[in-house]
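REQUEST ID: PR-0412
SUBMITTED BY: lab tech R.K.
PRIORITY: routine
TASK: structure prediction, single protein chain
INPUT:
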Amino acid sequence: MPRPATYRELRSAAPDEQLTHGTATWWTRSQALLIGYSTASAGDELAVDDVDGEYAVLVLDGAQATIEHTTGSASVTEPAIAIVPPGASTVRVDATGTIIRVLAAATAPSLSARASNAADYTAPDTNVATFAAWPDPPDGHHPRVYPLSEHPLENGKLGRIFRCSTVMVNVLPEDDRPRDPMQLSPHHHDDFEQVSLQVHGDYVHHMRVPWTPDSSTWRDDDHRRCAAPAVVVIPPPARCHNSTEHEPVGRAHAPLADRRLRTAASRLLRTPRLGAQRRRVPHAPWLAGAVVSVRVVELLVMLA
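STATUS: complete
OUTPUT:
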């Protein structure tokens, strides 16, 4: 049986960390993924150390930042995804906005312990396959920045895929049209989690555990409305799920944009080598044609 889904509306809880200039961070984890969602204020520094793997940083909502690492530094001056090398690093906030850090939980045990729901994973979820990293980048570790504006969508592609040795990110376009209720996509995953991160907009998350001959395993359907920002952890193996927007929220653009982040940990952002089935990712910016696992943790970042 899958574990129950976890729903966390971040604004309904106090932040897990508060910095000098006002940056507030909420840490939430799944079995494989760790998400640090920050309302970032200029002048603060988001520092991590003892991270045994690369991680991804999503910079949104007007935020600007400088990534600092012993291998070099890189500036982020527009909406972008950055990849940060293993070890100690700092994201210096240069302009106020939203900054989201996505790590494989196995690579950052001390950070994972900061998560508000860390106790939920004292006993591992055995339905989730074991994490294993992809190879290191061929030109060595250093901060990388991928502005979203420089990676337009290709016809016929679901989104824009970015990856590193621990994280894969698939960025979908913003869209101001509601989903067609006759064209939804209920689905399930055998051995990896899906984690949905709502950055803007209210969504209803629909969950179903299919019935088996053993009626003691039956569960009522769950239709849970979540107000952004929110994190929803959907465990495997047999939980059928789908998400729909609840209502437009009054922004000037994109009431229903989805950004799908996949991690080698989650959504933010696939877990490599979690299963035998594999496919090619021909448009990964720095590792074109790399063979990666399709059984991965999945992080959906929903922008309204």
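NOTES: The first strand starts at residue 6 and ends at 9.
REVIEWED BY: pending
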